[in-house]
Write the structure tokens for this entry.
Amino acid sequence: MSSISRDEVAHLARLARLDLEPDELEHLAGQLDQIIGAVAQVSEVAADHIPPTSHALPVTNVFREDVLRPGLTADAALAGAPEAEDGRFRVPQILGEEQ
């Protein structure tokens, strides 16, 4: 017998806006009970002297210096554009708004 009742599963299903059949409620009650049991086992293993971790191995970021470099000029950027107008990229109208 699961510690999670069929009514509790039905309540969770309503909250999640799931339409479950009666046999699905029974099936899910057992599965949710197994999940809760597995989480309880993991909680038993956790000890205060073991620090919580997000990764099995240490993760470090590799940073580079932020160096200012020259970028493209407006003319150079627009040189590869199929169409340009008034110093900007020209693209086809897609929303049907008035120009």
